[in-house]
Write a structure and sequence with these properties.
Elements lengths: L1 E5 L10 E4 L17 E2 L7 H9 L4 H12 L5 H13 L2 E5 L8 H12 L1
Parallel strand pairs: 1-4, 2-3, 2-4
Helix pairs in contact: 1-2, 2-4
Length: 117
């Protein structure tokens, strides 16, 4: 199972394998308190896309389309395969910092991973 969660929410045993999927470390979160198992910056949107997503929410569909194209790059496939496999044996929680819980890169990444399973 794959779930998305803001990194600012307290960790839970139900989270399973916790993966930060943002390019930048979240403000105000101490690394020792983050309780992450892995930080996959490689799966985060490019800096250009990250700025697009935060600057103009009305361009969400453009962001989603372009981010999916970034995730389709061959060098990212082993990471996506590994996360998908990990989710088959337990919960994978994709952690993100953005306040908007419906329009963020973790939601798109989850959809991509769900389609692989």
């Amino acid at each position: 199972m794959i779930v998305c969660k803001r990194i600012y929410e307290p960790p839970s045993p139900k989270d399973g394998y916790r993966v930060l999927v943002d390019r930048l470390w979240p403000r105000g979160v101490k690394r020792e308190n983050a309780a992450i198992d892995e930080w996959l910056k490689e799966l985060a949107p490019s800096n250009e896309l990250r700025r697009l997503a935060t600057a103009d929410p009305s361009r969400w569909s453009e962001f989603e389309q372009r981010y999916r194209a970034e995730l389709a790059q061959p060098h990212l496939q082993p990471l996506l395969d590994r996360l998908s496999q990990t989710a088959k044996s337990g919960t994978v929680t994709l952690l993100f910092a953005k306040r908007d819980e419906q329009h963020n890169n973790a939601v798109v990444l989850k959809a991509v991973l769900d389609a692989r399973r």
